[in-house]
Amino acid sequence: GLQVGDEVSTETTTWSCGCCVSCLVGSYNLCSTRKILGYSSNGIFTRFVIVPAERVHRLIPGISLLQGAILEPLACCIHGCCEAISTKKSDVIVLAGLGTIGLLSAMILHERKLILYSRPETSKVRYDIARSLNPFMVTTNATIVEDVMKATDGYGADVFIECSGSLAAVNDGLKLLRRGGTFLQRGLQSKTDNTIVDFSQICYKTLNVTGSISSKHSSWE
User: Fold this and answer.
1) CB 214 within 8 A of CB 29
2) What is the mean pLDDT of the chain?
3) Are residues 100 and 73 in contact, defined by beta-carbon separation less than 8 angstroms?
4) pLDDT digit string (tens) for 153-165?
């Protein structure tokens, strides 16, 4: 169904086994032997790449090549924010990190009561984009727990989404979530980060904790 000259974007999964438990339920992004564009083979800065046709998505009219170039991280964010967890418009959602993944996640969840934060040294451009989404609050990591508790009358946030890759942010989330709240891990931590994480908070607060990696066909649709 594809023609030479079609404008497309592509998933990063170039191969999955098709017979493991994850593949059989449609979660080929969790296949333990999956091959990934840019990891298992050359990425798209090489001259030619081969991708299975079912992983290629034709751009609909009105979507530019520039927009198409960021559809893959957007699909990853949709998989995390809309498929890995469920949220309501009334939820207070705290989102850590104002990088590409954090800002795209904020755009997806812009109708919720968003509290966005990052390090003070994060670029002004990223903070400006964050504020343009009309969130409930944009703040820094230095005051995030205090700010959230004040904004929720000490109750805590309903959902925390970690997009920064910082273990310090993980601790922030565990502290500021309400009892029974939801924690979504999206960022990937450095292997040299030795910050101690207080996982006992998961038990004390009975938190719903999950992660999200890559995307699948439904995310793109």
Assistant:
1) yes
2) 95
3) yes
4) 999 999 999 999 9
- Regarding beta strands 157-162 and 92-96, do their DSSP bridges make them parallel or antiparallel, or are they unpaired? parallel
User: Do the beta carbons of residue 94 and residue 178 sit within 8 Å?
Assistant: no
Q: How far apart are CA 179 and CA 122, in angstroms?
A: 30
The mean pLDDT value for 16-44 works out to 94
Q: Do residues 81 and 75 lie in contact, with contact meaning Cβ atoms separated by under 8 Å? A: no
Residues 69-104, buried b or exposed e (16+ Cβ, 10 A)?
Answer: eebbbbbbbbbbbeebbebeeebbbbbbbbbebbbb
In whole angstroms, give the CA distance from residue 121 to residue 133. 20
**CA-CA distance, 139 to 169, in Å (whole number)?**
13
Paired tokens of 208: 């719903």
pTM: 0.94
Rg (CA), the chain: 19
Number of Cβ atoms within 10 Å of the Cβ of 114: 23
- The CA distances from residue 146 to 29, 159, 208, 212, in Å, are 37, 16, 22, 27
Query: Which residues lie across from 139 on neighbouring strands?
Result: 117
Distance in Å from the first CA to the final CA of the chain = 17
The amino acid present at 21, given as its one-letter code, is V
